[in-house]
Amino acid sequence: MTPGKAYLDADAIHRLAGRSDAMGAWLVVHCWGVIFGAVALFALWPNPLTFLLAVVLIGSRQLGLAILMHDAAHNALFNNRRINEFAGEWLCGRPILAELASYRHYHLTHHRYTQTEKDPDLVLSAKFPTSHASLRRKFIRDLTGQTGVRQVVGQIVMSFRLAGDDDAIAAATEDAALAFKARDLWKSLLVFLGVALLMSTLGQWWYGLAFWLLPYLTWFQLVLRIRNIAEHGATEQSEDPLRNVRTTRAGPIARALLAPYWVNYHLEHHMIMHVPCWRLPDLHRALCDAGIGDRMRISPNYGRALAEAGW
Fold first, then answer.
1. What backbone torsions phi and psi does residue 77 show, to the nearest 5 degrees?
2. Would the N or C end of the chain have less CB density within 10 A of its end CB?
3. Can you give the residue ranges of every domain in the chain?
4. Tens-digit pLDDT profile for residues 17-68
């Protein structure tokens, strides 16, 4: 479960895995600050360019919320366990229709069985590499909202199917397709709609639709797919932790629009999964200093990672 132990000593791992309540709070504040800052940018200078920029930035920070929830699932967002659970659930997960406990259960299974037949995420990565035309169709469906609408409708239907059926809920937690789906979806919907209502209250009536629902249905779906492809798409289906996952180098623009909060350091995350996201660059350097940098699967950019998957 901790492949990094083969290359780093216990003291180094302990230092890298140190959590910080202050840093966790800053990351959550930063994420929501970018979201509402993007809305404010359009409100101050309303034009098509600032509208598009706001949608893209907010969609990328919706992915950012998913990443911070992911850190909370590893108990790495905050040092204080109660704050970690509250922030991961209500400030990061529920606003994007996700739920911490079900995500944690499925995701730890992914770590245990990465790129093997028991990996619940294998259904996402096994289809790659694929054709350029197939990827183009997927991206078009994402950007036009087709993927998002289908997932939201499916999530609502699934919540009714699972309601009150504990046996069905237990079985569903083994399905990667339900990773972000809570049996009490109504709580997530209330938070999701609450964010949209707040935006409309602070601005104009349509702000919630334009700057919360629209990014969620479009750009968030696209970057979520790109993230999934870059992490495990077209990698080895094996138990080698240096080859069955990919780290992708990301410059400032990619970090702002595609890969917030160091999510691109995915190989490092699999090596020691309880290292906080903001310490992953340090973990990367430590692994390279340990002499395995040339053995790690690293893509120079997201374009190259997508090319390996068929783009």
1. -75, -45
2. N
3. 3-309
4. 999 999 999 999 999 999 999 999 999 999 999 999 999 999 999 999 999 9
